[in-house]
Design a protein that fits this description.
Shape of chain B: globular
CATH topology of chain A: Non-ribosomal Peptide Synthetase Peptidyl Carrier Protein, Chain A
Mean pLDDT of chain B: 93
Radius of gyration of chain B: 17 Å
Largest sheet of chain B: none
Helix content of chain A: 40-55%
Distance between the termini of chain A: 22 Å
Strand content of chain A: under 5%
Helix content of chain B: over 70%
Number of domains of chain B: 1
Low-confidence stretches of chain A: none
Number of strands of chain B: 0
Number of helices of chain B: 6
Structural class of chain A: mainly alpha
Oligomer: heterodimer
Chain lengths: 85, 184
Amino acid sequence: MKNEIIEIIRTTLSLGEKSINENTEIEKIIESSIDAIELIAVLSNKYKIRIEPKDLNRIKKVRDIVSYIEKNKGKSKTKIKLEGF
Amino acid sequence: MITKEDLYILSYYRASELAGALLFGKLAMITEIDDIRIPMTRHCAEEAEHAWLWTKAIKDLGEIPIKVTKTYQTHYGAAIGIPKNMLEIFCLTQILEKRVVKHFSMHLTMPKLNPVVKKVLIKMVDDEKYHLDWVKEKLDEYSEADKKTLEKTMKKFIEVDKQTYKELSLREPFKTYFKGYYEE
C-alpha cells in the first residue's frame, strides 16, 4: 500500500520524476493550498478516509500520510452528499 | 493610465479569480458527487473567464498584471486550514461570493471610476449571482439532511470571513485605496 500511496501523491501533485519517499517532507512537495485540497480529496475518495483538521497538523512527512491511511482506511461513512469530495 | 495601486488591486482581483478557477477545475475533475460535476465545471469556466476579463482590462489600460500569489483564498486558508469536505468548500464559496458581490458593488460606487474597470465590475456582479444560486441549492439540499452541521459550519466561516476582510482592509494598498468606503 505504501508504494501505491506514494504513486498517488506523485501523480496528483504532478511531481514527474522528482524523487519522493517516506521521508519526504510534505511542505517540500505541496506548493499551494489548492494542491493540498486536491491531494486530500483524492486520498479521501480513494481510501474512504476523513481527515480532520487536528490530524492534518500531525502530518509532516509522506510516511505520516501512509500511516494515517493504514489506520483509518474505510472508516469514513459518508451518509450525506457533500460530506466527502 | 492607471496608478500602481490600481494595478495591484486589479491584479489581486485577477489572481483571486484564477485561484477559484484552478480549485473548482481540480475539484470538478476528481469529485465523486455526480450531480455537482456540471455546475462545478461551469463555475470553473466563469472564474477563468473573470480572470481573463481582469487580465484584458489591465492590458487595455496599458499594463501587465503583477504577480500576486497571496489571494483572498490564501487568507481564508491561513485562518481555517484545509477544508475537509465539499460541504466546507461550498460554505466558503457561498460566503466568498457574497463578499465579492459586496466588495465589487462598493468599488462601483467610487468616483472617477475608469470605464474599463467599471464595465468588468458590472459583469462580475451579474455573474456571481449564478454562483450564489447553484451553491445555495446544494447547501439547501444538505440542510434538509443535517441543518445543524450546516448552520454551525456557516457560522464559523462567516466569522472567519469578517475577520479576513477586516484584516485585508487594514493592509496597503487596500487601506488607502478604499478609505472611507469600508463599512465600520
